[in-house]
Amino acid sequence: MKLLAVSDLHVAYEENRTITEGLRPESDDDWLIVAGDVGEMSTDIEWALGLLRERFAKVIWVPGNHELWTPKDDPVQLRGVARYEHLVEMCRRLDVLTPEDDYPIWTGEGGPAVIAPLFLLYDYTFRPEGTNNKEEALAKAHEAGVVCTDEYFLHPDPYPSREAWCEARVELTEKRLSALPPELPTVLINHWPMVREPTRIMYYPEFAQWCGTVLTADWHLRFRSACSVYGHLHIPRTTHYDDVRFEEVSVGYPREWKKFKRSSPWLRQILPVKP
């Protein structure tokens, strides 16, 4: 029985769709974390999560920014919170766990541990050097020609801004995590990294402002994290901060994984910890 993880499947790309079709458990008892960015189209998201749920004993999904986009050709034209709630209901029909469901307890080797899928967004506080606020950070990104597509397709409705939505999600999630049994460690799952450090190696530092929030900088310590699982950066690796393991589990775009000659296995083992 293993807890495995993957993210950023981006199944709109035929090569990544083939990768997704090839993802299989090692045993009938394996769980799978899908840490966001399955795709943009609601039909693609449903196809991929449905396929994976047929194969794994439990599938746990958190949204990435791409799932929250409202593409003009998507049959689901809901925006913001309404789109997220639509995806949650879709997952429930598929028997896929979401951040809105009760956190499951991992009782396999490496447990017990609370598996906590989170949806926290970002608030432009991972700002580039030399900037002091969102306006300056965005101006620098535009000047560098590095602007996240979220600015055009990720709508925060009914919140006035993405950072306001982020603040509300952080407040809600913090209360839930604070109520967990204090003797249990957690596996924290969020599409965006929960600390700033992983973004320091990004080729375009201006992009970091779309990658998380400083409000969660100590959550891996406060909430007894055995591992923090994330994606989004398309820089798959294992790092440690404050002696806590962080796993970036993305597949990424074909041009990226082909460049670095990545291949199977695409799934990262979270629990039990590999020796």
Explain what the structure shows.
This protein has 275 residues and is α/β, with parallel strands linked by helices. Helices cover 30% and strands 16% of the residues. It is built from 9 helices and 10 strands. The strands form 2 sheets. Strands 4-5-6-7-9-8 form a 6-stranded mixed beta sheet. Helix 2 (42-55) packs parallel to helix 4.
Write the layout of secondary structure elements.
Elements: E1 3-6, H1 14-21, E2 31-34, H2 42-55, E3 58-61, H3 65-68, H4 80-94, E4 105-106, E5 113-117, H5 134-144, H6 150-153, H7 162-178, E6 186-189, H8 219-222, E7 225-230, E8 237-241, E9 244-248, H9 254-259, E10 268-271
Parallel strand pairs: 1-2, 2-3, 5-6, 6-7, 7-9
Antiparallel strand pairs: 1-10, 4-5, 8-9
Helix pairs in contact: 2-4
Task: From the structure above, extract its key features.
275 residues, 10 strands, alpha/beta, 16% strand, 9 helices, four-stranded mixed sheet, six-stranded mixed sheet
